[in-house]
Structure formats: C-alpha cells, structure tokens
Write a structure and sequence with these properties.
InterPro entries: LolA/LolB/LppX, Sporulation_related. By secondary structure, this protein is an alpha+beta fold. The chain is built from eleven helices and 18 strands.
C-alpha cells in the first residue's frame, strides 16, 4: 500500500466541490446520502481488487480537488449496485409503489420512476454509457431482460426488451441530465461519481477527510478517500471513495454504517472505458406496435398512473428551503442534524384504541417500530441501518441519520 497523506482536511479544503451547496448540506448531511441511496442505491463488494498500487503521495485536499477538476465526459462500463438499509420488511417499498413489482410484458408505463424502485433493495448489475451532457444510456440487466433509459439530444426513452410499453420525454438540449432525475439516466440511477458528489457536498467542520491508501478497481489504479463523521451519534460510520489516479473519476463508493456489518451502500465499476461510445449506442426507435406513453401524460394525470408518479419524486427534496418554515425545524448540524416536523392537527399514528385501525393492523404497526417514552411523552421509533425516525403520539416527527437515543434526546429538548 502506497504511503499517502492521511492528515485531516477541513471543510475549507473541500470548498471546490459543491460550492453553494455546502450551506444546505451541512445540516442535512446524511439525508443527501440517504436520498441517493433510497432512490438509486449501492453495491455488493463484488469488485475484484487485484492489489494496492504504488502511487505518488497525494494529500486529501489535492485528491478532492482532483475529483472536482475531473472533466471526463465520455465513458462506458458496467457497475454493480446493492443496498442493505435494514428495512423491517424486504421488498416493502416495491410492494407499496405502483409498478414497483411490475416488469416485462404489460409492465406499466415503462417510466423510470416505476422501474428504478426495484433498485432500493438487493444486488443489481447496470451498464452505463455517456458522451457528454447530450447523450447517456443506463441499462439494468436482469436474468432474462434488460431495461434501458436513453437520453439522446433532447429525447429520453425508456424501454424493457420484450415488453410492449415505451416511455418518452423531452429533455432540453444543453442541460445536464441530472437536472431531470425522473427523465434522464444520469439522475435516474447514480454512478459512483454521483454518489461521491453527494457525499463531498456534505463536507464541513464536522467531517474528517483523509487519504487511506490505494486500490485497484476495474483494472484502474485508484486512491482511496475516506470520509468520517467527527461527531458521535450518527448512524453513518464512514464513506470510502476510490478515485481514478489518472483522471480523478470516482470508481467505487462505499457507505458503511456505524453499527458495522456489510455496507449500506456499495457502488462501483467492474469494467470501465473512457473512450467515446459509438453513436449507435444511444439510438432508439420504438418497436412496431409498442404503446408509447408521453411524460406529460403522467404529469397531467392523463395516464392511469399519473397521480402516483406525481406523488413519488425520484429523490428527497432539498430541505434548506423549508428551514424556519412553520412546523419545520432543524436541530443540530452536520452528521447529527435532525429534522423536526410538527404534523398539522397534533395527531400521531392511528391506533386500535381510537378505533382508527383494526387490532390486527395495530399489531403490524407495533412490529415495525419500538415504543419509547421521555419528557416529550411517548412515541414510536422506526429504524433502518441509516435513517431513523421518531413519531410522537402528539404528531411530531424527528428524523435523521442518527441513533434512536439521539432522537429521544432531541424530542426531550424540544419539549422543555
């Protein structure tokens, strides 16, 4: 393992990444990461690391600047993603989302919002190609099918081979596809670079950033950037980013929980090529007889799934604009920030005692969370390995990538 400068760098050292985003992300640190994880998700450690290359010494600040300066716009490759959020019921999200478990022939509208919900659990293999901001393609490879989202100069298509459903949208030319997360492949499913940008945008005074040796990912020599919270009480243990030593492109992203165990999110290339993909890679013509659903049909509710599509954004909303609004407050900062939301009407979960739900349903709700009490009264904590939420019986919600105890302390402090 090559010797590298592992001295800590500060938020100022990383201000080249994220720019104006830093203010927003400082108090919603893990939510940004969790939003990417929930919308488009991580990878099992199936990447063959074939040794630790001997690379020139580099500081943490220099490595972050190398990522920020990376201007590679052409690439193609395969990467694997998986996630282990520790949800109480495997596949619950897919079962509750219209289209979440549909696929193949007759599988809904073929819209990315439907298909990409499948990436919220399990292990998946994806193929990606990009030729600048005007052309990208992302394919989810199944055992007997392939679902693709294609952005080609203002046109966005989504299609699963063997089906008779095609999705079509207009994407303004000259705009980064990431600005249209629900329409274009770059925003619809994150590459390791997308994960890395989200993580680096959260760096501040509450964060330790170091260089932790080297690795080889997808046949490329890479430095390893290690990001860790300085604060106690966060459910995030660390974030590790393997950065291409030659061009600064993130090749692998791993988010580990403070509780240990397998990675919550682990996304990385198994193959990557930085030459320009053939133009034919991005060409698409709807198959004869296929039903083409236009994006504006879903947005205006003309399609039968329109309402559900509008209710299910592809990523978590930015919370900075809500801070200070009535009923919304941010407690703390950095990795231990907690969003406090006062529900209108002061009502908590429905209960069998109030006659709002059957006794059987009450048992189901109780099984999903842990009952807690404190100065705030009583409530229920719902947990994953990354994001936890406390819903009090008076209708207040406390949520963040923090421990259960941290949520209870925040609720107690708010009750004083």
């Amino acid at each position: 393992m090559a010797p590298n400068d592992s001295a800590e760098t500060t938020g100022e050292a990383t201000s080249t990444v994220g720019g104006g985003r830093r203010k927003a992300s400082r108090y919603i640190v893990p939510v940004a990461v969790a939003g990417v994880a929930a919308a488009t998700i991580g990878l099992v450690p199936a990447l063959a690391n074939t040794g630790d290359p001997d690379l020139p010494k580099i500081s943490a600040q220099e490595l972050v600047e190398k990522i920020a300066a990376s201007d590679e716009e052409q690439l193609s490759g395969t990467f694997k993603i998986s996630t282990d959020l520790g949800l109480p019921l495997d596949g619950l999200a897919g079962a509750l989302v219209p289209g979440g478990e549909r696929g193949g022939k007759g599988g809904g509208t073929a819209a990315p919002q439907d298909k990409l919900m499948e990436l919220t659990s399990g292990t998946h293999t994806l193929r990606v190609a990009a030729d600048g901001p005007e052309r990208q393609k992302l394919s989810i490879l199944g055992s007997s099918s392939e679902y693709s989202v294609i952005h080609d100069q203002g046109e966005v298509w989504a299609y699963e081979n063997g089906s008779d459903e095609v999705y079509h949208a207009e994407a303004p030319e000259g705009r980064d596809a990431g600005e249209h997360a629900e329409k274009a492949p770059k925003g619809a499913a994150a590459t390791p670079k997308d994960f890395a940008e989200q993580a680096l945008a959260t760096v501040g005074d509450t964060t330790s950033v170091t260089v932790d040796g080297t690795a080889q990912v997808a046949g490329r020599d890479a430095y390893q950037l290690l990001i860790k919270p300085k604060q106690s009480g966060s459910t995030v243990g660390s974030i590790r980013i393997a950065v291409d030593a030659e061009n600064g492109v993130p090749l692998k992203f791993t988010l580990s929980a403070a509780s240990g165990g397998k990675a919550v999110v682990d996304a990385g290339f198994t193959k990557v090529d930085f030459s320009r993909p053939a133009a034919s890679t991005f060409a698409f013509t709807p198959p004869a007889g296929a039903k083409v659903t236009e994006a504006d049909e879903l947005e205006t509710g003309k399609d039968e799934h329109g309402a559900a599509q509008k209710a299910l954004p592809g990523q978590l909303a930015e919370l900075e604009g809500l801070a200070g609004e009535e009923g919304f407050n941010v407690i703390g900062e950095g990795w231990t920030s907690i969003a406090e939301i006062k529900a209108p009407g002061g009502k908590g979960l429905p209960s069998a005692e109030s006659g709002e739900v059957p006794a059987e349903a009450q048992g189901f709700l109780d099984a999903l969370g842990d009952k807690v009490t404190g100065k705030f009264g009583s409530g229920t904590v719902f947990t994953t390995r990354l994001v936890n939420a406390l819903l009090t019986d008076d209708g207040s919600v406390y949520v963040g990538a923090v421990t259960k105890d941290a949520l209870v302390r925040a609720a107690d402090a708010a009750a004083r």
